[in-house]
Each structure stands twice: as C-alpha cells, then as structure tokens.
Amino acid sequence: MALSEPPTVPAFRDGRNNFGRSAAGDFQRLSFRGSASEYFGIWIVNILLTIVTLGIYSAWAKVRRNRYFYGNTVLLGRGFEYHAKGGQILIGRLIVLAYLAFYNVMLTVMPLVGIVLGLLFFLFVPWLLARGLRFSARVTSYRNVRFDFAGRAGGAFVAFIVGPVLAALTLGLLAPLASRWSYRYIGNNLRYGGKAFATDPSVGAIYKTWLLSAAMILLGLLIIGVIFAINVTAMAPLIDDPDSISGELQASIGMLAVFIYVFMFAVFGTAALFYRAGVRNVAWSATTFDGKHRLMSDLSRVRYTWIAVSNFLITLVTLGLMRPWAAVRMATYVNEHTAIHFEGDVGEIFSAIQREGSAVGAEFMDIEGFDFGF
User: Fold this and answer.
1) Cβ-contact 129, 374 below 8 angstroms
2) What does the CA dihedral 133, 137, 139, 142 come to, rounded to 10 degrees?
3) 310-338, pLDDT tens digit by residue?
4) CA–CA separation, 209 and 216 (whole Å)
C-alpha cells in the first residue's frame, strides 16, 4: 500500500459533529468551512490597501487572511483562532528590512563590514526561525487555549540549515533525513495547553515516498538528455560555420531552450509536490499528542499534486483573480485528509486541557513578540 494512503480507518468522522456528541475513540477529521466568494472579498481589499499604502498594510492583510483561514479550520465543531496584531508583524518586518538595507549599504561602502554583517545574519537565522515558530504557535489557539513552541536555535540550525545543506550537497540523497529532522524539530517542540506533541517518523518510510520523486526527476533528466543529444547531433555541422545559422534556426534553438526550462520546472515541481504530500502523511501519522492521541494524514499524492498544479495554472491564466478560489480549494482538501484519534472521553480531555491551559494562555497575551517573516 502506498505511504500516501495509510490504512483506511472505518471510524473516521468528518469533524462536523457537535463537540458534546463526539464519541470516544473515533478519528475526527478537520474540515474547512470557508468559501471562495467570502475570501475573495477579503483578498481583494487586502490587495488594494497594500498597493495604496505602498506595502505597509500587508502586515494587517496577513492578519485578516490568517484569521479567516484559522477560523474556518474546524475540529469537533470549533474553529481555531489567530491572535496576532498587524503592528507586531509590521515591526518584525521593519527590523529585518532595516538590517538588510544596512547590510547592502555596508557591502557597497565597506565590503568587509558587509561580509561580517552577512555572516552574522546567517548565524541569527536559526534564532529568528525558532522565534518565528514560537510566535506563530503562541498567537494560535483552539477552544481558548493557546499553543506554544519550545524549540531552541540549536535545533533550528540542524533542522533548517544543516539538513538542507546536506540534501543539496548529496543531490537530494539525504533529503529524507533532512525532512525527518525538520518534522521532529517542529513536532517535538509543539505544545498545546502545556501538553506536548511528539513526532518520530521513520527514515525508511520517508525514503520509500522519496523514491518515486527521485525516479520522476531521473526520468525527466533522461528525456532532456535524449532531446539535447538529438539536437546537438543535428546541429554539429553548423558549429564550424556559425554564420550559416539562419534566423529561423536561431528561433528554434531559443524555443528549445525555453521548452527545456519549462519542462524541468514542471518535473522538479511535480516531484517536489509528490514528495511533500508523502512526507506529510508519514510525519503526521507518526505524531502523538499527550503521548496517546494520534494524528493522521492520508493525502493522495496524485490528487494533492493535481490540485496544486491546476491551482497554479488557473491562477496564472486568470492573472491572479482565481487565487482565492485556489487557496480555499487546497485548504479544503488538506483539512479533509487530516484527523486526530482521541483516547478517552473527548469532553473530559478538553475540559482538563482548558483548566490547565488557561493560565498558560493568559501569560502569552502580551509577550508573543514579533513575526520576523521567517
């Protein structure tokens, strides 16, 4: 059975039941209750105000967008909440932009100082990533209980710097290991109401889902290699006499180059989407909450890829006007294929979390910090 489609659980519910009627032991699916028409109104206002304010309103636009998507993501009849403020996001962005502007000025005026500032920024990225994840968690709540994130900069360095570098240096051979590090870092440091999540995806399972993506890339490279070899052989006699190349032939060569670029973009993009869906299934299905409640993801890699690719094409063809429809379409699909299995009485579980988590939530109200955009 493909890893993107875990064993079917007959007790899955659709997540639309009232909280009080949820039976213990069922798999509760999330759902998304937003609509493209509703989100279009929010999206178009965000775009217009961002343009009018020369980008300043984009911070508040992010808040409005997240509040809409979080609020319409429903579990057991209740939506999530997003509590960030536009000012927090704007300040975080201004800090990063000011540093980057200063870095570029110094790189031009005093190159040595610019290089040092660049290295310092690179060293601060893991800290910024950890702070950004903490901010995102702390401004998110469910049933009036906040999430939290306890990850440190060292773990972020391994998960988001060392892992991707190793994956790149090995031409993707260690990408599953890097994916495992990133999912473990996030999953093992996430908290809800003082109770911890834990994630331990199998490297072997991730490699199994990686194999299909790797095969797709190799096939794409093979096709490009054959096309290139055929055309080089046909044009070999013209290499010694470049003046004999006609305008039509030059146009053909240009079109071939464009085709190769688009084809490789499509191949790598499709392979990445297949891999992303497969890894999500493996990692989420290896995640527990409070040591006993199990998460589940059963995205179809084919369906997920089709939705992402068709969303991109429709958005491109309509010059962005169908972007709200595409965003709602993807959110609906992903939520419908995400679930959690509760061990014990659901009402008692959340009552206990609310009692424990209320104090935690209160102390987060004014100390979430800033969103640095990472």
Assistant:
1) yes
2) 160
3) 999 999 999 999 999 999 999 999 999 99
4) 12
369-to-57, 179, 237 alpha-carbon distances in Å: 19, 28, 66
pLDDT by residue (tens digit) across 230-266? Answer: 776 656 555 556 665 666 666 777 787 888 888 999 9
Torsion angles phi and psi, residue 118, rounded to 5: -65, -40
| pLDDT: which is higher, 352 or 241 | 352
State whether residue 241 is helix, strand or coil. coil
Copy the structure tokens of residue 71: 């609020």
Q: What Å distances lie between residue 9 and 17, 290, 335, CA to CA?
A: 18, 21, 16
How buried is residue 193: exposed, middle or buried, by Cβ count under 10 Å (0-12/13-18/19+)? Answer: buried
Residues 330, 265: Cα–Cα separation, whole Å = 21
The pair of structure tokens assigned to 182 is 């990133």
pLDDT at 356: 67
Coil, strand or helix: which one is 149?
Answer: strand
Question: What would the two tokens of residue 199 be?
Answer: 């994630």
Q: Measured between alpha carbons, how far is 250 from 231 in angstroms, rounded to an integer? A: 13
Burial of 227 (0-12, 13-18, 19+ CB in 10 A): middle
pLDDT at residue 56 is higher than 60: yes
**Average pLDDT of 162-189?**
96
What's the distance, CA 63 to chain centroid? 17
Q: Tell me if 43 sits within 8 A of 324, measured CB to CB.
A: yes
Distance CA 306, CA 300 (A): 10
Beta bridge partners of 31: 74
User: How many Cβ atoms from other residues are within 10 Å of residue 211's Cβ?
Assistant: 12
CA-wise closest residue to 293 among 337, 333, 345, 334: 345
Residue with tokens 């490789």: 264
